[in-house]
Amino acid sequence: MATQTTRKIVHVDEEKCDGCGLCAPNCAEGAIKIINGKAKLLAENLCDGLGACLGHCPQGAIHIEEHPADDFDEHAVQQHLNQQQAPGAPFTLTPSLSSLMPHPSPIAHTGCPGSGIRLLQPKPAPPASATPSTQRPSQLGQWPVQLALVPVAGPIWENADVLIAADCVPFAYPEFHEQMLAGKTLAIACPKLDDIEPYIQKLATIFANNPIQSITVAHMEVPCCTGIVRIVHAALTLSGRTDLPVRDITIGIDGTLHTAS
Asked: Are residues 82 and 151 in the same domain?
């Protein structure tokens, strides 16, 4: 039998909720689901009370309350996520999908926020008559580009400005070559699916032994993608380089430049 303690837990104001579904993919525990056009907390023991979903509600319908509730149960969360991810588990389109355009529109999803399927509405490409007759030149300055394959030494690192990009960034950002890649040595990786420990060691070796001038880190807005920033900083610490400036760029799923610092 579940035990209760007074703790913080998510509350959904159904009068304010319009069922947009933006909160659901941002709950890593899968505790929120759109049911009959409204966001619902499926069970108290699935909610950790941290409120990762709060900033994704455009109606302000979600907030944190403190009251007696079932204890958060990590085992129950894992069982719940396993059921949601089982083969054949259905995905259902949120009722108000059309109201979300042209913003990213989610399909009801629980689990990792970065894995939620979203339908985008890109702007139409200009007609062929409006585009230059010559192909835009690539700004790629070396090959290979995958972090596991790039060498740890050589001319590509000599006085280099280095771009370390999550591998979804070039697909999402339309001006990647001209505005981000030009003049830089590129290494790409996926901080979610790849084994990151070898990356930290390899980058530390590259940073420590080459006259690199700067580092730019580019990643998607989804939480798991920010892991590439942690990889770079861990490698810098390991390398002992304290002189390298690091620029952090976030790209939205809709292809917009969100932040650059």
From this structure: no
Distance, in Å, from the CA atom of 164 to the CA atom of 143, rounded to the nearest integer, reads: 14
- Give me 233's structure tokens: 């900083």
145: containing domain: 139-260
The answer to whether residues 58 and 100 belong to one domain is yes
Cα torsion angle, 38, 43, 44, 50, sign: negative
* Amino acid in position 223: P
Q: What is the pLDDT of residues 20-50, one digit of tens each?
A: 777 877 788 888 888 877 889 999 999 988 8
The reply to whether 223 falls in a domain is yes
The residue count for the chain: 261
Domain count, the chain: 2
Please give the model's pTM, rounded to 2 decimal places: 0.56
Distance of alpha carbon 192 from alpha carbon 181, whole angstroms: 22
66 in a structural domain: yes
> How far apart are the C-alpha atoms of 224 and 147, rounded to whole Å?
18
Whether the link from the prior residue into 151 is cis, omega within 30° of 0, is no
154 sits in the region (left: phi over 0; alpha: psi -120 to 50; else beta) called left
